[in-house]
Amino acid sequence: MTYMIGPNPTALNVYNNLGVHQRDAATALAKVSSGSEAAGGVNVAAAGVAATRQGHLQGTLNNISIAQTSLNQLMVIDTAYAEMAAIAQKGIEVGSRASDSGADTSAIFDQLDALAAALVSIDANTEYAGSAAVATITAAIGVGNLVATHAAMDFSNGGDFFGAAGAVVASEFTAALAEIVDGRAENAAYIAAFQSTLQVLNSTAANELAAISQVENTDIAKEMMNLTAANIMTEAATAMLAQAMQMPNSVLKLLQ
190 and 85 share a domain? Predict the structure, then answer.
């Protein structure tokens, strides 16, 4: 066995290895205690990737909000169409009585005028978020726009159906009902499109959240194994360092 007087390279090497094991143990402990893959400043790239994906997720959540708001407006429009269809059907029913024997035609036509006014009011005055509900909806989602275009219905004086007060006839409600049904069918298609878009966006958000978790959150089981291994190696290196430090003492004893 070679005895050296001066620097103790064996002890220095063991000491360096001890530092490596202590560093590994500290890193694993930081990750386990915080749950973050970037804890301890080791995996900084994970934090950067997570921050970028967080930005993407916020964009997706914003698109979800836009799509949901537009869908809510479409549902209001559907309700308006349903009520207008009910009024038009009532107009057809009331108008059919005008030819009955002894019918009070004056009262019937007054009722038709009132029903026509109700149709005009719902079509013109239904609002959503302070604006006309039955209107073109442009939702800026992702790289493009999702558009729902509603053709204006003309129930007003001088329009296709209802003329001046007292001039409304039952047949005009049949024509009005046909247009209302067409408008509601088109609106139903828009509802389906926005619901599908919302479903895709919700799926995108869920997967983006999972992707963030994969790079941001630490694997507790793996880091616990790393911590255990580092602690074992630290204890072994500490014992070896103690032995290495005793080597110069052997030489001193020989010289005594």
Answer: yes
